[in-house]
Design a protein that fits this description.
By secondary structure, the chain is mainly alpha-helical. It has one domain. The chain is 86% helix and 0% strand. The protein has 3 helices and no strands. It is rod-shaped and about 115 Å long. The two termini are 60 Å apart.
């Protein structure tokens, strides 16, 4: 696997955390629905049970519903953070490209404004041209006037 940048690792970790939170919210919602069914069943059988037990059960169901809502909101927040981190990666990549282009321009200006460096660069170009022609088998022929 290729090496990840810190931003990539952070985004991946946030996506994984969002998935875990979403799964926890789903489980919580399922248990809340089951609790609500039990409360409804016990309420309909109120003649057999005390009102206090039914009220306590309804109260805990409400608490579970609130916790489920908070878990869902937390999962959505974490997912949004993962998207924001991915957006940050795009901005950082663009800034890196701009900085690299600036460094290249600076290096070229330094090369072509200094006569010694310019001569050295032209020699390198000439040698590279010779190597390319040597590999391809072409010969440079021409008339000198």
């Amino acid at each position: 696997m290729a090496t990840q940048t810190p931003t990539q690792r952070s985004a991946a970790a946030k996506r994984a955390a969002a998935t875990r939170k979403r799964n926890a919210a789903t489980r919580s919602a399922s248990s809340t629905r089951a609790s609500a069914r039990r409360t409804t069943s016990s309420a309909s059988a109120a003649a057999r049970t005390s009102a206090r037990t039914t009220a306590r059960s309804a109260g805990s169901t409400g608490t579970w519903a609130a916790q489920t809502a908070l878990r869902s909101a937390g999962a959505a927040t974490t997912q949004l953070q993962a998207v924001a981190t991915s957006g940050q990666r795009v901005v950082l990549t663009a800034l890196g490209a701009i900085a690299t282009a600036g460094d290249t321009v600076k290096r070229n200006v330094q090369t072509y404004t200094d006569s010694d460096r310019r001569q050295e660069q032209f020699k390198q170009f000439e040698l590279r041209g010779i190597r390319l022609l040597g590999r391809s088998g072409y010969e440079v022929t021409g008339r000198v006037h």
